[in-house]
C-alpha cells in the first residue's frame, strides 16, 4: 500500500503556500490555463471550444476557460486537503486520472505543464519559498496521475 511521504511540517507549509493562490481560484486558475494554451498551443486541441481562440485576452474572457480553471484549482485543493491521508488523496487522484486517460484521452505531460505553471505563478506572486514548499506536492500529484495512466494502459 502507498503512503504519502510528507512530514507534518511539509503538509502545513504546502497548505500555506496553496492557500495564497487558492484565495483567487478563478483568476489564478484562468491565468494558468491561458498561459498553458499560449505557451503550448497544442493543448488547446483538447478543448473544442477554445480552438478558435488565439488571443490571451479572448481566452481570459471566456466562461469556459474560467470554469475549467476553477475546476482544476478545486481538484488540486481537494488533494491538498488530504496530503496526510493517502487513501483519501488517491480517492481523488485515481478517478481524475482515469477519466483523463480513458474518456478525455489527455496526454499526461499536460499535468506536468499545468503544475509547472502553477509553481511559476506562485514564485512570481509570493516568492521562491512559496514555490519551494509546494513543489513536492506537484511532484506527488504528477507521479500518481502517471501511475493511473500506466494502469489504464496508456
From TrEMBL:
One of its GO terms (molecular function) is superoxide dismutase activity. Its main location: cytoplasm. The keyword Heme applies. It catalyses: Fe(II)-heme b-[protein] + nitric oxide + O2 = Fe(III)-heme b-[protein] + nitrate; 2 superoxide + 2 H(+) = H2O2 + O2; H2O2 + AH2 = A + 2 H2O; Fe(III)-heme b-[protein] + nitric oxide + H2O = Fe(II)-heme b-[protein] + nitrite + 2 H(+). It comes from the Eukaryota. GO terms for cellular component: sarcoplasm. Residues 5-150 form the Globin domain. Pfam families: Globin. It is found in: Cytoplasm, Sarcoplasm. Coiled coil: none annotated. Involved in oxygen transport from the lung to the various peripheral tissues. Monomeric heme protein which primary function is to store oxygen and facilitate its diffusion within muscle tissues. Reversibly binds oxygen through a pentacoordinated heme iron and enables its timely and efficient release as needed during periods of heightened demand. Depending on the oxidative conditions of tissues and cells, and in addition to its ability to bind oxygen, it also has a nitrite reductase activity whereby it regulates the production of bioactive nitric oxide. Belongs to the globin family. This is Myoglobin. It comes from Rostratula benghalensis.
